[in-house]
Amino acid sequence: MEDPDVGCGIHQFNDIERSYPEYTNFTLAFGTPDQILSDGNQLTLSTLPVFTVYRLKQFTRRLRNSLHCLISRSEPTAVDLKTSIDSWEELAILRMELTNSLRGL
Predict the structure, then answer these.
(1) What's the whole-number mean pLDDT along residues 6-27?
(2) What is the per-residue pLDDT for 6?
(3) pLDDT in tens, 21-42
(4) Please, are residues 23 and 53 in contact by the beta-carbon 8 Å criterion?
């Protein structure tokens, strides 16, 4: 008998998501725009924009690796999934660059 789990899919996604809980809610982890502008949120190492960008790239790299069996298909939904991950990464990095700029770091 073969194991039906190919090591790619929702279970791996959930494992990765649990490893990076700060990316499930940016506002909760990094503050609202008002909090950022007023310095209402204290920066920690884990919320420092430069460190966060590094972790974001690590997160999306692990996500792509874990979902390779879905992303590598030639179906339109696979392309949509890859595009969604890429777009989310770009927006998340932009959010951190804006935070960095607003904080004057």
Answers:
(1) 83
(2) 61
(3) 888 877 777 777 777 777 666 7
(4) no
Q: For residue 23, give the DSSP letter.
A: G
For residue 18, the surrounding DSSP H or E stretch is helix 10-19
User: What does residue 74 show for φ and ψ, rounded to 5 degrees?
Assistant: -95, 5
**What is the model's pLDDT at position 89?**
93
Per-residue CA distances from 10 to 16, 69, 83, 84, 95 (Å): 10, 11, 18, 16, 26
| Among the listed residues 8, 22, 30, the one whose alpha carbon sits nearest the alpha carbon of residue 81 | 8
Q: With b meaning 16 or more CB within 10 Å and e meaning fewer, what string describes 5-30?
A: eeebeeebeeebeeeeeebeebeeeb
> What is the chain's percent helix, strand, coil content, to nearest 5?
70, 0, 30
Q: Which residues contact 27 (CB under 8 A, 6 or more apart)?
A: none
The one-character DSSP state at 74 is: S
Q: List the one residue out of 80, 79, 66 whose CA is nearest residue 19.
A: 66
What's the whole-model pTM score?
0.77
